[in-house]
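Posting for a labmate who doesn't have an account.
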Amino acid sequence: MQIANISEAKAKLSALIEKVMAGEEVIIGKAGKPVARIVKYEKNQQTRRPGALSGKIKIADDFDELPDDLAKAFGMVPK
């Protein structure tokens, strides 16, 4: 793991990216404190399955009805 300050990271970004691509983790610090971590991007290997939550989510019958006080606050009914 390499630790670099912000100015060093600006100057050597390409080299830091090469290290990350090789599997190393890079920490960027400001005033001696870590503030960011650069890690290799890995695409999610799990395929999406549409409908996975089917039957597990219930929407209330009155979901689209806004209470009068909120409707007034949003200017949806005359005050």
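Reply:
Got it, the structure tokens are right above this. The mean pLDDT is 89.
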